[in-house]
Structure formats: C-alpha cells, structure tokens
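Self-study notes.
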Amino acid sequence: MTVQQAAGPDPYFPANGDARYRVHRYELALDYRPGPNRLSGTARINAIAGRAPLPEFQLNLGDFKIGRIRVDGRQPHYTHRGGRLRVRPAKPLRAGAAFTVEVHWSGNPKPVASPWGGLGWEELTDGALVASQPIGAPSWYPCNDRPADKASYQISITTPSAYAVVAGGRLLTRTTKASTTTWVYEQSAPTSSYLVGLSIGKYQTVLLGDPGLGGVPQHGHIPSDLLPEFSRDFARQPAMMELFQDLFGPYPFDEYAVVVTEEELDVPVEAQGLSLFGANHVDGARGSERLVAHELAHQWFGNSVSIADWRHIWLNEGFAKYAEWLWSERSGGRTAHQHAAAAHRLLSTLPQDLRLADPGRKSMFDDRLYERGGVTVHAVRCALGDIAFFRMLRGWASLHRNGTVTTATFTSHASRFTSEPLDQLFEAWVYGTRLPPMPSAETGIAV
C-alpha cells in the first residue's frame, strides 16, 4: 500500500483541507429529520499532527450552529466563518502527536455552492442524498476536506423508521426504538472525505447476483415502482464485477451498493463502496449501462487508488471511461479501439487547450478530460501490448490500494512494464495539449 500525502494545500481548492495534520478515523453520530431537513450531529475525529508543532488547525464545515468543541477533552478557542472551522487548542499539539477532536453541530444542511452547482447534502422531495465531489463533504460533517487525507469511518444515523439509510460500508446494526431507527455503518478502508456516500429514502432492497463463496455482496436500493426496470438495467452488474476483478484485481472493499433515487440526477455519483443513480438512469432498456460500468470501475480507480490532489483527476475519470470500453469489448459490443477511435474523432473537432496532467479547476469535469483520458489509457495499452498492459493495471490497483497517487506516479509505474521509453507518449498525451494521432491497435505506432 502506498500512502502519498500531498505536501500543501490543494492548488484548485486552497481553502479546503489542512495539510498540517492527518485524520485516522471519523466517528459520526447523526440525527436527521427529513420533514424540516434538520440535522444534528457529533463527530469524534482521531488525528495525528504532522512534522511540526500544531498551534492551530482547520476543519471544513458548512453553515451550522456549533454546540461544543473539545480537543483531547479540553475546550479550545475556535472561529467558524466561511466554511472554515479554525481550532486553537489550549496548548499547541506536539509534532507527531495523536489527538482527538469532538465537534457538536446542528442546523439545516444545504449544498456547498460551486461552479458546478450545489454539492454535498441535497434535500429530496422525500429524503436526502449526498453527492460531494469535489468539495461538498463539509455540507454535512466537519472534515479535513482534501482527497489525500483518507480515514476510516463509523457512521450512525437516526431517522424516522419509514426511511432506509444507505451508506458506503458494512451495516453493523439497525435498531428501532419507538418511531425512529438507528443505522450504524462501518467503512474500515481509508476513505477520502468527498467519497463518504449517504442516501436516505424509501427503498426496496434487492440482492444483485449470488455472491457465493468469496464473492462480493452487491445490493440495490430502489423505489419499489422502479424495480422491474432496475432488474433489467443492472442485471449485468455481477458480470461486470467478475470481469473487472479479472482485469483490475480483487474488488477493494467489503461490499458494493447501488441506490436509485426517485428524482433525476444529471450524472450518477460514485462514493466508496456505493454509487448513486437517478430515476432517469433507469429505463428498462439498459440505456445507461456504460454508466453502471463507469461507477463500478471507480471503486478501483478513484476510490481505492485515490488522487493526491485534484490536478490528477484524469487518473480517476480516464480509467473509469476506459473501463466502460473494456466492458463493451468483453460483452459483445464495440471494441475499446473502436470506442477510442470515436472519442479521438470527437476530440479532433473540439478546442485543443486542455492538459490532462493539470486541466485547471474550470476544466476538471470537462467532457474532453474523460474522453482524452480514455484514449490516453488506450494509447498506453497499444504501446505495452495486452499482456503487459493488464499486468500493469493489476499492479497499479494492487500497489497503490488504499493509497494516493499523482500523474508522475502513474507514468513511472507504466514505464516499468516495457523496455521501450514512454516519455514521448506521456509528453504528448498527458502533458501536451495538442491531440496526438490515434494510436494503432496493433503496434501503438501513430497512424
């Protein structure tokens, strides 16, 4: 496992996160009432100071009322403005010291404003969901909101008993008292704050496939009226899981859940061990099957192997895009090379001013990043050949499981699987902006 913390603030979101310490574990106890959209919570955060003494530190948290804060049981000085909770302990924390923060908060959760609309906690007509990428996590809990700071989570949520709660991880207990039910989930694998997924709604739960001995438990949580369409649209997900484990290595988490909300979502949302789809992604005709593959692939690429900062988002999206093409290739559809060629033709008609290795905050979710990322992965496949390429992919997922990576980490890793230098390939596809020629399916030479 590689844990490669970014050295300073995220260049795209310098107000989010604090590189001077890292979190080991979050324990969240939440109470949510859907009607008034009222959330109250207590967080116990176990953290470790960095290499320098820590006179103060920052958490990110939205517009909530703070009830109490304690650092190692003592009351600190704090300020809470503009989504930043600045905490000054009674005495500075020693370099390398373990410490515990307790935060009590309450209020009406609302999305974090961003160039891409509201992010994080979203109140639905009858329930709620969390879609935090990239900076929405503080909309509902205090966190060190940077992708490189991965921690384990235990989440306890109490809601009216009519509602089901789905979170990424393993359901430990479900306890009903009077009119409320408390759900407790454990996510033991290190998780980035934006990947902590949650959905509250009225769902029917179904088993997807038969996990058998040593298989991955897969469940769907959907409104009962969408069950017939869902049963067809997600019927091949167990086969995807089997294929991706063959191509990428063992599934990195304990189980996998998908949720379909009654409302429409612009795009599905991946979280650790969980993906969220809108009702518009369920049509009974497998019209969104490529997205089913895309979100599942993120469990390896983005969730288990995470980026050190947002400049490297192509490592998430390019590999998930390529997984769509691999599923098509292996399930009787167009080959990955045909998909790559179509993407290349599309990219050739669009502005060529995007650099995969550092697209800039405005372009980090540009469609061109997804398409060019996929074609770049295909170019690496063409250069390495299938045997070395898939060995490289499995090694990437295994070596960096539960860790964080950068573009340079990947280029160095891929270069170890060939005797031919890949410098020109990466310079053109990853660090350059002009679209290189489409690689050949046979030799990797531009044609």
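Second protein, same conventions, sequence then structure:
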Amino acid sequence: MVIVGMYLSRALMSIGMMLLIANAVLNVHFKDYWKHFIRHPYLVCLSLYFLYAATSGLWSENTSYLFQRLQILLPFLTLPLAFISIGKWESKWVHWILAIFILLNIGGIVWSLSLYFPNKAFYDAGYHYSHQIPTPFKQDHIRFSLSVVMSILFCVSFWNSYPQTRVRILMLSIVVLDIFYLHILSVKSGLIAFYLISFLYIIRFLFIAQYRKYGVLLLAILILLPVVMYQISESFRTKIGYVRYSLERMQNGMKETNISDEGRLISYQFALEIIRTKPLSGVGYGDVFDAMQKKYDAEFGQGKTTPLIPHNQILMAGVAMGIPGILLLLAMFILLWKQVRKQDFLFFCFMVLMSFAISIEAFFENQYGMCLFLFFLLLLLQRKKNPPYLEALQG
C-alpha cells in the first residue's frame, strides 16, 4: 500500500504507514520491540528527529504550518518501531517489494513518456525555461528522478542475486530504459546521482582483478553515454544549454531567483543568515517559511518573488532547530553510515544516494522524499543476511 500509494494516491500511502504503526502498537510483544528499539542508536536518532522538530513548535508562531510539517515527519517517530515489529525480512519478501517498486517505476516512466512524445516539440521548448515533462509524485521531478536511480540500484541487486539469463536480460532492459528516461527527463539531481553511483560501482569492479576488464568497459560506456544522449535527445541538449545560460547569469552580479541554480544558492544564503541570528534554537519548524519569506521580501521587495524554503535538508534543520538540529541530523547519518559495514553494496549505494539527496534538497519536507528515505532505509536494514551463494555473487 505504501509503495503503490507513492505512484497513485498519497492517501493510500498514509493508510499503509498507519497500518504498519498499528501492527507495532497492538502487538502483544510491544515491550520486546521497544527494548530492541532503544538498543539501536540509529533508530533512536530517527525518532528523536521528529521529537525535536515537534519541540521547536514551542517557539513557533505559525501553528498551521507547524502541523503540516509534523504530519509529514511523523513516520520518523513511528516507522522505526513498526518495522521492528515485523521482524527480519526474508530475502524473497524484500525482493517482491523491490520488484513492485521497479514495476511501478516503469509504469510511471511509460506514463511520462506517453505525454512527452506526442507533444515533444512543446516539452522540449519548455526546457529552455527549466520546465520538465510531467512525472509521477505530483510533478516532483527531483524526487521522481532519484526514485529512477533507486530502481537502477535494485535492478543491479537482482542481477547479482539471480544468475538466470532471462532475469538478467529483463534487469538489463529495465536499466537501459531507466537510463534513457533519466536523460530525456534531464533533471540535474537525478543525472548527477546516476553518474555518481555508476562511478562508484565501476571503481568496485576496477579493484577486483577478475572483473577489471568489465570495469574498463563500463567506464568507457559511462564516458560515452552523455555524448550519445546529447546527440539523440533534444531535451538533454536543451538542458545542457540552460545550465550554461544559468551559469552565465549567475556571474552578472545580480540576484535572480527565477534561475534555478541561483535560486537554490539564494535559499542557502538566506538560511545561513537566519541560522546566524538564532544559532541555538532556530526559528521553530512552524516559522521556517515565514522567516524565509521575510528575507526574500527584504531583498527583492514584498511579493516580488516566490520564497523558497532552504533547498538543503541540513540547512532546513538549522533554520528550524538551530545548530542542535543540524548536529542531530548529522549524528543520524553518521550512525546510519556505520551500518554500511554490516550490509551489502546495495545499502552503501543507497546511503550515498540519500546523503546526496539531503545536500541538494529539503528532502524530508514532503511525503515522497520522506518515504523514499525512511521506508526503504528501514526495509534494507531489516533484511536477513543473504544465503552464502548470494553473498558470493555480490562480492
């Protein structure tokens, strides 16, 4: 329900999460689950993030905005315990869930492309103004592009886990479709994430003697890929041109919020200024948008431009909860990174992807980003160890 709801209905996603929570709270072994929960600092940090955000409401004036934020962040408090109540997941169940996600992602891509190709000239022209083609996730292009990168990760995991030829052909076909779509969609965040993860995966091949020739081949493909896509994809070519244009505009000495990259940097600047004024407490989660709006109005004139919340989850935490909020978020990620050594390369890549996501977006501030991070994080952490033959295949 949670995964299907991501693509079809936010209400269904919320109902699925509530059922997970109810399963934990109503379970007769709740006390045992609680003891297990408090023995894992990374799970405690996840829940503390919500609790500290809620505490900041004590010094927030805009209670309406506060409750909107807390409603989105509530799974941080409840889902860690909910996943513990389910116990360790057998590999086959994890694979079924990941397969459902991959299939839904394919459906989202097909839907998006079915709107793009019949109106190709119209949508290609929109890329001159940083307007992307329609996507699932309520047109949240950044989070959907990152979900496509996650789909590629899961397909590679299936490739490693199942040596059957038909499975590998299917996974390769899906990966090719995903990569093609990422370049058609041409969201910078998704493309950077894809090339970053691909480069890390290739490095892994290059350090293993028996796979080094495959690593060299993949590296050559990765280098040639943007060149080929530049020739065949109008949207990708236009996006490259827009990036050049935005870089030129950023050098003119004028602040322009309608330029996507510069608008992001302006949100960082204003966020840092707010953190300097209230380093210990922040403005409170409920007043983040109002505080940013005051900065925009003071700089550009009241109502002259649309204010943005900080496009960086670390700065968002700092504006809302001060430096203690930043330290709590960083502590959470440090503790999660420590789990990498106990997991496989899939979990490592997932953590790289999520660390990148929070650095370029206030990733947790809508339901899609929160679900991509928290649901799949807990799912991957709750997996049982793979059988020896699968671990051997995964290196």
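Instructor comment on the second fold: Residues 219 and 284 are 46 Å apart (CA to CA).
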